[in-house]
Amino acid sequence: MSAPVVNPVRNVARWSALVGGLVYGYVHHNSLTALEHGRAEKKKIEHRDELIAKAKAEWVKINTPTGGVVTDPDSPNFDLEKLLIHLSETA
Known about the structure:
This protein is mainly α. The protein has helices at 8-63, 80-90. The mean pLDDT is 89.
């Protein structure tokens, strides 16, 4: 009994399909990995920004004078007249 003869074109097509599938899988895996790393980095940055915002809010809460006078000139609630009156009363 002899081995069956396989058409060489069929072998080339099979090997080409196998190599093409491997290349596609490799590229697809790399694109999904890059996408997931991007999402993780974005989530990390959002978490860091959230912590910074909380820290700033806590700092403002701690450093606001009890008399209700805002001493930060960049604050929208800053009133120079109230600050001067407050400083003259405490001095």
